[in-house]
Design a protein that fits this description.
The chain is an alpha/beta fold. Helix content is 29%, strand content 24%. It has 11 helices and 15 strands. Keywords: NADP, Oxidoreductase. It comes from Leucobacter denitrificans. This is Quinone oxidoreductase.
Amino acid sequence: MRAIIADQAGGPEVLKFRETEVPEAGPGELLVETRAVGVNFIDTYQRSGVYSVDFPFTPGNEASGLVIGFGEGVTGFAVGDLVTTSEAKKTYAEQFVVSAEGAVRVPEQLAAKLPAEVAAALPLQGLTAHYLATSAAHAQPGDTVLVHAGAGGVGLVLTQLLVERGIRVITTASTPEKRELSSAAGASESIDYAGFGDRVRELTGGEGVAVVYDGVGKDTFDESLATLRTRGEFVLFGGSSGQVPPFDLQRLNAGGSLSITRPSLGHFLRTPEEREWRYKELFDSLENGTLDLRVGQTFPLAEAATAHTALESRATTGKVVLIP
């Protein structure tokens, strides 16, 4: 079996494609033949040493593939099932192991028509967008919200899920091409970052938005806070521009009894029932055509270094996927 392996922390060039041992499924685990691998920023943080990992290191938590074996005690899966997960390890490989609890079988009818790369693009960004749309804030049909990075992987999915719920979405994006993608996903307006606060106020008749979904962080935080209506909610779910510095909570009072939360995905997958509910709604949206997952770029698994370079340049839209 071949896999991507880094012997030390560093730039994308440390990622090498070479032979390694075939993994074995232990009790409660599935052995999966990889069909597609989702590439995420956490992979680059681990590779570069920003996050501490043990070397030699094979990146990857997200992938789709076919079950080819399983360990003792596994139920609910059969050889040949298409599964997807964001809770595996070492998925930059031709085969990987994942706990049965952390994998989800794609429904048979959907699996027959769902490309493997789309199945691999679903878990991390799909589940993140789902908890943001359904659980992290309380926008109601008819409300207007602001979604930053509307052409990114999460932004595109989140926009579609919110629009499906009758919510008006304004997005930001950095180029005309990205704004066009965001509009195609259902955004009523997609605007440049420059002066976005004033523009959002104009688009809401001076009232402001019910919710801001901000994965950018430091560069957009202050202006985003000023776009909220009275009793508006701020959902800070990332920091692609850097982390938000400590701030005076009294600003929330002065802004109109505002609320702010800093959620993360793991806290919204606390039970098997919650995980099943979120995946079911995503699968249903894919099945009925109200959700379109954009795979922006695909690379051969052997070219993982090139994929990391593309992702870190922030020139990509949608999902970056590796194909073994």
